[in-house]
Amino acid sequence: MRRICVFAGSSPGGRPVYTEVAQALGCELAQRGLGLVYGGASRGLMGVVADAALAAGGEVIGVMPHGLFAHEVAHQGLTELFEVGSMHERKALMAQLSDGFIALPGGYGTCDELFEAVTWAQVGIHQKPVGLLEVHDYFATLLAFVAHASNEGFIPPAQTDLLLRETDPAALLDAFARYQSPADVTPPPTPPVLP
Ligand code: AMP
Fold first, then answer.
1. Rounded CA gap, 102 and 97, in Å?
2. pLDDT in tens, 86-98
3. Is domain 3-177 in CATH 1.50.10.20, yes or no?
4. Which band of pLDDT confidence, cut at 50, 70 and 90, is reported for residue 70?
5. Helices 108-122 & 87-97, crossing angle to 10 degrees?
6. How many angstroms separate the Cα of 41 from the Cα of each of 50, 52, 71, 80, 115?
7. Is 61 helix (H, G, I), strand (E, B) or coil?
8. The model scores a pTM over 0.85
9. What residues are in contact with ligand 1 under a 6 Å CB criterion?
C-alpha cells in the first residue's frame, strides 16, 4: 500500500475527541510512510488530518472540485493539490490514487464517499479495503443500519464484512495490510423469505 484515502467531515464536529483521532490518523499514516489522499480542504476534520500528516513529514494529496466550494479554503501547504471539474471526478481520482479508504466522522459528504467506496468493492470495481475509524461510537447507528439492511435481505451477510471497523488508527491500518478481498463479491443476494 502506498496511499490511503481519508473521507472526513468538512466540520470539526462537536467533541474534541474527533480532532484528536483525526490527528492520530494523520500521524500514523505518515509514520508508516503512507501518503494521504483527501478532499483538499483546510478546515474541519479534513484539515486536521492533513495538517497532522504534513507535520509528521507525510505526503498529502488533495483533490478539490474547481469553484464548487466558494467559501471553502483549499489547503495551501499540500504536497500536491489537484483541481477537478466535479464531485464525480474528485471521487474517481481519489479512488485511483489510493490503495484503501478510511472514513472518519463526517456528514452527508463523508457518507456518500464511504458508501460509494464500499459499493465499488461490492461490485468488484476495486479490491481495496474500506474501513471506519470509530470515535465515540459515532458509526454505531450506521452499522446498525447495515445489519438491518442485511437482515432484510438487501446486503448479503458476507458482504457486511466489507466495512472494517477499528477504534485505533494503527489497528485499522494493520487490518488493511492483512486485508484480502473476498474472491467473488459480485453475485446478487438471495433474499431470505421474511415472516
Ligand atoms: P461532510 O461529511 O458533509 O462534511 O463532507 C465531507 C466530505 O465530502 C469530504 O471527505 C470531502 O471530500 C467532501 N466535502 C464536502 N464538503 C466539502 C467542503 N466544503 N470542502 C471540501 N470537501 C468537501
1. 14
2. 999 999 999 999 9
3. no
4. low
5. 60
6. 9, 13, 11, 12, 21
7. strand
8. yes
9. 7-11, 39, 41, 46, 69, 72, 106-110, 113
User: How far, in Å, from the CA of 109 to the mean position of ligand 1?
Assistant: 5
Q: Smallest Cα–Cα separation from 128: which of 95, 103, 158, 159?
A: 95
Distance 114 CA to ligand 1 centre (A): 12
Q: Nearest residue CA, atom 5 of ligand 1?
A: 109
Per the structure block, which three cell numbers stand in for 132? 471506519
Please report, as a single letter, which amino acid is at residue 81. Answer: L
Tell me the per-residue pLDDT of 123-181, one tens digit each, with 9 for 90 and over: 999 999 999 999 999 999 999 999 999 999 999 999 999 999 999 999 999 999 999 98
Domain ranges of the chain: 3-177
Question: Which residues are paired to 133 by β-bridges?
Answer: 166
pLDDT, residue 129, reads 98
Q: Which residue has the cell 438471495?
A: 190
Instruction: Give the Cα separation of 93 and 73 in Å (integer).
Output: 20
Round to whole Å and give the CA distance between 75 and 2.
22
- Which ligand 1 atom is the nearest neighbour of the CA of 107? 2
